[in-house]
Amino acid sequence: FTPAQTRAIHSSMGEGLTVIVGPPGTGKTDVAVQLVRLLYHNYPEQRTLLITHSNQALNQLFGKLMNLDINGCHLLRLGHGENDLSTKDTNNQSFKYNQVGRLDFILAR
């Protein structure tokens, strides 16, 4: 991470509101993914709501979150773009991050 990204992450983990803006390619998505990862591991009993301006932006976030050490059963994606996401679970089965996918995951246990 760049020094500016590190400051943004540090600021975001504190109290108050931090707004991260910048032109395309400056690492806003990577900063957001790191924040979600930190929140997920530091506050496991809490829920985090991510809101984006487009389905494409949310899919980019989910694409990166799926590659981290975040349990897929803790991710729920709402909106019209969830069918654009495709991934496999640990058993190489197709997994959906929408309401139906979450229900299927719970019933399979």
From TrEMBL:
Question: In which organism is this protein found?
Answer: Vannella robusta
Pfam families in the cross-refs: AAA_11
| Entry-linked InterPro entries | DNA2/NAM7-like, DNA2/NAM7_AAA_11, P-loop_NTPase
Name-wise, this protein is DNA2/NAM7 helicase helicase domain-containing protein
> Which GO MF term does the entry hold, naming one?
mRNA binding
Under the heading Gene3D superfamilies, the entry gives: P-loop containing nucleotide triphosphate hydrolases
One GO CC annotation: catalytic step 2 spliceosome
Q: Where is the DNA2/NAM7 helicase helicase domain?
A: 4-96
